[in-house]
């Protein structure tokens, strides 16, 4: 197999419509070029046939990373390849990148909710091509089809949470969708500041990103109109949305346990729209889990899968 390096426009023309998720698109990656030293848009061919593509960034440390500014990334294939073809694709990418002087390649793959029928084959191909697992993060998602199967979201959550949720519901909080991004960002910023956490995306980053990514913005308010909690959600793949940020404002009057109500409203909202999966993101960092965050996500009905970082040294 051979590889050509393309421009963003050439890559979009060749792979547009085949990408498995928004983080693999040329438009999303072009938006974030300032966050890496250089970008490689790689197209893999077998003779004249287009096989696969991958967009990666080269850092100042000589490491090639896919993604370079996203939760994950993966190959774009124009047809479902078998194991031997995927091994050939990854091997060709390794050979090509080796000639650029890069020190290593790191690939952070999506959790299996994005590729259920090919996750194991992809992992086998990576391993056969010389990649090794550096670590895995635990990632949680909610399957809205379980609401239909169970008859009610309330039957899917921990009994203790249901008691808290019923208490919150008596406050008659208002769930608003389609609100301004700036309003949501203020709530998220207050949440992160209260916990001493940095926000990786600025408001300007958010506003630029939603020009190329469909997004929904939600706010939960009390009867007096005070914002208590908020969420920012991207439409990242067919039948999958991802919570990019959500949180409440700690210490605000009447805000106790309002995240339970926000989660309930969001999950039911996408259930009613026919979206099957709500990805609520990782509950670990660098492979080290946060037990409290894992416990919370499990208690609101979410299931866990792994998001794995693969690495191969080139020197």
User: What is the global morphology?
Assistant: elongated
Mean pLDDT: 95
Determine the fraction of residues in helical runs and give it as a percent range.
25-40%
Strand content: 25-35%
- Give the ordered list of helices and strands: EHHEEEEHEHEHHEHHEEEHEEEHE
| Biggest sheet layout | 13 strands, mixed
- What is the end-to-end distance? 22 Å
Structural class: alpha+beta
Radius of gyration: 21 Å
Low-confidence stretches: none
How many helical elements? 10
Count the strands?
15
Describe this structure in words.
The chain is an alpha+beta fold. Helix content is 33%, strand content 31%. The chain has helices spanning 8-15, 26-31, 83-98, 119-128, 145-150, 159-169, 181-195, 203-209, 258-273, 291-299; strands spanning 2-6, 38-46, 49-58, 63-66, 76-77, 104-108, 132-143, 174-177, 215-221, 227-237, 240-248, 277-282, 284-285, 288-289, 303-313. A hairpin with a 2-residue loop joins strand 2 and strand 3. It is elongated, with a radius of gyration of 21 Å. The relative contact order is 0.16.
């Amino acid at each position: 197999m051979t590889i050509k390096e393309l421009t963003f426009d050439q890559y979009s023309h060749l792979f547009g419509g085949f990408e498995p998720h928004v983080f693999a698109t040329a438009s999303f990656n072009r938006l974030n070029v300032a966050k890496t030293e250089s970008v490689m848009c790689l197209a893999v061919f077998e003779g004249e046939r287009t096989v696969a593509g991958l967009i990666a960034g080269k850092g100042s440390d000589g490491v090639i990373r896919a993604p370079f500014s996203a939760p994950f990334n993966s190959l774009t294939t124009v047809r479902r390849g078998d194991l031997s073809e995927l091994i050939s694709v990854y091997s060709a990418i390794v050979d090509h990148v080796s000639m650029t002087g890069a020190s290593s390649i790191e690939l952070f793959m999506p959790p299996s909710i994005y590729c259920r029928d090919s996750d194991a084959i992809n992992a086998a191909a990576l391993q056969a091509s010389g990649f090794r697992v550096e670590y895995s993060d635990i990632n949680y998602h909610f399957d809205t089809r379980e609401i239909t199967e169970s008859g009610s979201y309330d039957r899917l959550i921990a009994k203790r949470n249901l008691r808290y949720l019923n208490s919150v519901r008596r406050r008659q909080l208002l769930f608003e969708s389609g609100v301004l991004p700036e309003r949501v960002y203020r709530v998220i910023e207050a949440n992160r500041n209260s916990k001493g956490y940095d926000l990786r995306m600025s408001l300007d980053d958010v506003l630029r990103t939603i020009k190329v990514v469909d997004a929904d913005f939600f706010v939960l308010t009390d009867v007096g109109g005070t914002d208590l909690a908020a969420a920012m959600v991207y439409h990242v793949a067919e039948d999958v949305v991802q919570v990019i940020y959500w949180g409440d404002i700690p210490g605000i009057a009447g805000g106790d346990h309002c995240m339970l109500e926000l989660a309930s409203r969001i999950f039911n909202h996408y259930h009613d729209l026919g979206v099957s999966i709500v990805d609520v993101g990782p509950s670990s960092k660098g492979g080290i889990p946060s037990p409290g965050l894992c416990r919370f996500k499990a208690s609101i009905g979410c299931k866990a899968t792994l998001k794995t970082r693969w690495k191969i040294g080139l020197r």
